[in-house]
């Protein structure tokens, strides 16, 4: 049992867009245990598409098409496949009603060529499109399965993950459900994490444990297969518990969450307000906090204190501190955090000072970072971290560390 | 004359990475006027790779391979192609010396399998790898051209654009050089720009003029073909001049420049300092200014004044202004910009206030933005803009508009 993914669209062959659809579908198939041997990209040309279908039929049992289901005259995927398989196109009333509703909702006039999108290949199982108009299809002929999906990723991805992969699993007799969960780590590297749990990774085949690193964070993807989804989920609970016993202190969230989202949720929950004094990060922390709608309940404002004179003028850092210890120092981070919280009248003040690079500063090497956290009712703490990336990476990593220390500090203060 | 691009690598079929190489190569081929009819992706499997080569030979004259040139046992592209074409692999001394130098430079021990990377298919033209070890190759057999490129984009992209496309053009007898230039616009939409110059676009075939929109900016790509590169460049000058006569006021830069880079360059050149008072944008402008190394000569710091109380406390906005006109107003933007420049002692102060969304504010609708610019020796100006995007897009667009207004203001003040 193996699959080939055929993307249809001249814009891919002209290099105007990247074929992210093939990647997305391949990931989902890999998780389901279905091999993919080939990806093909072909233009909006019926003869060449037909040739590609014939080649795919020689080497795959499952052929998945993306693109070419739209209303324009370039969109010829289903027409070409229907003709090739000797099948008719028939109007699907549900799909048509969906398209009419879409136009009604967006107050636009539906033109005749949009009706074309509701045509499906006779005998196919319809995959609903919740984010656009053209429905997807799954059909069988002989021992082969054909799946047609729309081209825009925002339509294709939810369609395939919600309906496509299930319909395909049922069709090929995969009785098992796939249940997966992502654990998100911060403050531990990929290699260190793997070392801590390598015996679990090696011993597990169901659920599997797959580490993935990126952007300074590490995640573990846990994937269980079972005929009963609920049993699959409890298998995940069990392996998660084992992992938590070893490295639970580095886990900050699940799935697609982010450090920033966890922090904002926590601040709102505990009704805490925060301000920031940013030197190194130049406003990045505040920019991120305010990127989340409703931030005003926890954040009122802060200062970007890039130059030393601004640290003194706006945040009352003592001249002696800057003279004796320098701006990149524990002492400076401490004053910045405490003074910011006092001046802005917030529960928490966070400060970022350090050397982003490319040049060293005050004799401190690139990547040296001090993050101060002043929180009502707790002694102010300053964390020193040493980063080894580019200027941009060091700034981004510093903000992530700041969020991580804040989450830890707030959680600890609640448990105390 | 048409090309097929074959990417080799199981990681592509597992969905671990996206095939950006096919896009890059396709773009370059499209510019050179060479058609691409198919992309193929195949795993690290000699039998399936060989089958893919045979299919490609049936339908393309130029076959371009990416990936599988590395030192590990999975890397089998050149071995498979050599065997298929009945050719030997021979050691290329220049490539070997390059690999030895690479290890010497990075202070690492060169293992035996790295020598394998210096093997080339006999009779092939070597494409140097300036960013890695494995050299690329171009070879001919019969009427077909085979090009082998490494998989990592940071090696493949410069190799193909510097050496590959030229070698290919020479081989297929394209005597013309391609010269291209990108003009960057801001403050005019794609449709409006096209309307202004549609007659030029339609009349030109060499150079061609191609508009592209993205991220709130519009670019025009000018591409000339001529046997003499210098003549090609002067053809571009000529068409650029025609465009400038119509819409020159919206052009802010060339090629891969950005509004932020142009602004920073201008501030440094004119020795101007700047500060910011950011409500709407929450620190994004300052974060971007400080993302450029050496920002400290033009930027000392600023304030994020998200809440009204901070606008009063830190930036001395009058209570009456907030009561009568509100925070999202021309008057507030004016005071914020002027007071920020005064408090921080800078030549320029910029302010951002507005409604990012998703909810309206003070009865002002989402997307309403005021940007204030106070500059020594000029009356303070406030620009009102109305944006129609999401919260994130409105914030990003506002920062871009801020940079654009600053560039215009500074240029005008110099010309005055």
From TrEMBL, chains A, B:
InterPro entries linked: CinA, CinA-like_C, CinA_C, CinA_KH, Competence-induced_CinA, MoaB/Mog-like_dom_sf, MoaB/Mog_dom
Superkingdom of the organism of origin: Bacteria
Residue ranges occupied by any MoaB/Mog domain in the UniProt entry: 4-170
UniProt record similarity statement: Belongs to the CinA family.
Protein name, as recorded: Putative competence-damage inducible protein
Gene transcribed to yield this protein: cinA
């Amino acid at each position: 049992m193996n699959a080939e993914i055929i993307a249809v669209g001249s814009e891919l062959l002209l290099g105007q867009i990247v074929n992210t659809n093939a990647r997305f579908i391949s990931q989902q198939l890999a998780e389901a245990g279905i091999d993919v041997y080939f990806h093909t990209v072909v233009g909006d040309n019926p003869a060449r598409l037909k040739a590609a279908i014939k080649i795919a039929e020689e080497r795959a049992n499952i052929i998945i098409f993306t693109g070419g289901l739209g209303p324009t005259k370039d969109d010829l995927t289903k027409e070409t496949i229907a003709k090739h398989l000797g099948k008719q196109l028939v109007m699907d009333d549900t799909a048509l009603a969906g398209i009419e509703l879409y136009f009604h909702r967006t107050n636009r006039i539906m033109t005749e060529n949009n009706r074309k999108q509701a045509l499906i290949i006779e005998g196919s199982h319809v995959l609903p499109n919740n984010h656009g108009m053209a429905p997807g299809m799954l059909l069988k002929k002989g021992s082969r399965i054909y799946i047609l999906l729309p081209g825009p990723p925002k339509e294709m991805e939810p369609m395939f993950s919600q309906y496509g992969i299930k319909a395909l699993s049922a069709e090929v007799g995969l009785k098992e459900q796939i249940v997966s969960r992502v654990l998100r780590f911060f403050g531990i590297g990929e290699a260190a994490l793997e070392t801590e749990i390598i015996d679990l990774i090696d011993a597990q085949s169901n659920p599997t444990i797959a580490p993935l690193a990126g952007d300074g964070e590490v995640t573990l993807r846990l994937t269980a297969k079972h005929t009963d989804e609920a049993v699959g989920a409890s298998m995940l609970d069990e392996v998660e518990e084992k992992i938590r016993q070893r490295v639970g202190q580095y886990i900050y969230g699940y799935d697609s969450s982010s450090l920033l989202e966890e922090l904002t949720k926590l601040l709102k929950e505990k009704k805490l307000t925060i301000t920031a004094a940013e030197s190194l990060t130049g406003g990045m922390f505040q920019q991120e906090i305010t990127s989340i709608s409703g931030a005003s309940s926890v954040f009122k404002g802060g200062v970007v204190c890039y130059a030393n004179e601004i640290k003194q003028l706006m945040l009352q850092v003592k001249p002696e501190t800057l003279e004796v210890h320098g701006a990149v120092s524990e002492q400076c981070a401490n004053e910045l955090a405490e003074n910011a919280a006092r001046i802005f009248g917030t529960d928490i003040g966070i400060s970022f000072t350090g050397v982003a690079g490319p040049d060293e500063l005050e004799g401190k090497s690139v990547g040296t970072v001090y993050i101060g956290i002043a929180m009502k009712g707790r002694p102010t703490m300053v964390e020193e971290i040493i980063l080894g990336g580019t200027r941009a990476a060091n700034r981004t990593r510093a903000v992530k560390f700041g969020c991580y220390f804040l989450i830890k500090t707030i959680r600890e203060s609640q448990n105390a």
